[in-house]
């Protein structure tokens, strides 16, 4: 496999396929991806705004720390109760949103286009959570700092999330562990291990599990409960896909093997 992206073999349909890429190709795809470039631009703009309306070093640092602490909790609650909530597909007007922001990722976890959140949903969410926190800490300057911090953390989350679906074994043990937990969320039981880079919130809320032995395999791990029966009652997601929901992704599934060896090495 070549080190560049001029290679049709790393795509499935129009999307990059992380199951067929190496780390170098992932870096190139990530650093040239429009959504990520938009985030980088917004981080720079936030730094400019935070400088222009400078709140002082105290409030600036406090708002960075506050967002670092709040982010994993906010992500956890959204992932567990909204993305896995089994409500959005039941309403016509939210069905396409749910399909794009989580169902498609669980149907085929390797496709980069649907792994990255859509900026029209991520950015308002980040703004609604971070801007009030920053504003209360130190006015508009701190609000800009908080928003920029939220977007920067999102870039980091998206990168680690890519690595979790890249068909390779990370060198460092902590990334191996992180990857193994997220792979379990996708290939064993989706009702647990909701974190991306940290599973502290999962431990607090009792949804953390260490390996495949800890729980039985969930039959809804790829369809999130939107099975053929649900699709007959609530057809909008199926209509948009153009085919019934699948119980497993197409093609080879290197995760089955990966899950075995990462959980062995990580345990
Ligand atoms: Zn994932
Ligand atoms: Zn994968
Ligand atoms: Zn999920």
UniProtKB/TrEMBL annotation:
Domain of life: Bacteria
Transmembrane domains' residue ranges: 30-55, 61-83, 110-131, 137-160
Gene Ontology CC entries for this record: membrane
Residue ranges of every copy of the Fatty acid hydroxylase domain listed in the record: 65-207
Co-factor requirement: Zn(2+)
Region (Disordered): 239-267
GO biological process, one term: fatty acid biosynthetic process
Keyword terms: Endoplasmic reticulum, Fatty acid biosynthesis, Fatty acid metabolism, Lipid biosynthesis, Lipid metabolism, Membrane, Metal-binding, Oxidoreductase, Transmembrane, Transmembrane helix, Zinc
Subcellular location: Endoplasmic reticulum membrane
InterPro entries with a match to the protein in the record: Fatty_acid_hydroxylase, Scs7
Topological relation to the membrane, as annotated: Multi-pass membrane protein
Bias kind Basic and acidic residues: ranges: 245-267
GO molecular function: fatty acid 2-hydroxylase activity; iron ion binding
Protein's UniProt name: Fatty acid hydroxylase
Species of provenance: Acetobacter persici
């Amino acid at each position: 496999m070549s080190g560049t992206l001029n290679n049709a073999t790393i795509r499935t349909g129009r999307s990059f396929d992380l199951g067929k890429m190496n780390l170098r190709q992932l870096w190139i795809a990530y650093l040239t991806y429009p959504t990520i470039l938009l985030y980088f631009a917004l981080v720079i703009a936030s730094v400019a705004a935070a400088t222009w309306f400078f709140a002082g070093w105290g409030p600036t640092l406090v708002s960075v720390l506050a967002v670092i602490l709040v982010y994993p909790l906010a992500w956890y609650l959204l992932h567990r109760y909204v993305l896995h909530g089994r409500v959005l597909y039941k309403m016509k007007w939210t069905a396409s949103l749910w399909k794009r922001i989580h169902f498609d990722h669980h149907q085929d976890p390797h496709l980069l286009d649907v792994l990255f959140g859509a900026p029209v949903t991520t950015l308002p969410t980040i703004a609604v959570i971070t801007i009030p926190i920053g504003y209360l800490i130190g006015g508009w300057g701190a609000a800009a700092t908080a928003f920029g911090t939220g977007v920067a953390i999102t870039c980091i989350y998206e990168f680690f999330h890519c690595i979790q679906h890249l068909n390779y074994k990370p060198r460092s043990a902590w990334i191996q562990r992180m990857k193994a937990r997220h792979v379990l969320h996708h290939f064993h039981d989706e009702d647990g291990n909701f974190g991306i880079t940290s599973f502290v919130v999962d431990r607090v809320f009792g949804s953390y599990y260490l390996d495949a032995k800890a729980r039985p395999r969930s039959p809804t791990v790829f369809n999130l409960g939107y099975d053929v029966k649900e699709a007959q009652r609530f057809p909008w997601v199926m209509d948009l896909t153009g085919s019934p929901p699948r119980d497993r992704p197409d093609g080879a599934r290197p995760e089955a093997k990966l899950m075995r060896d990462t959980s062995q090495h990580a345990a």
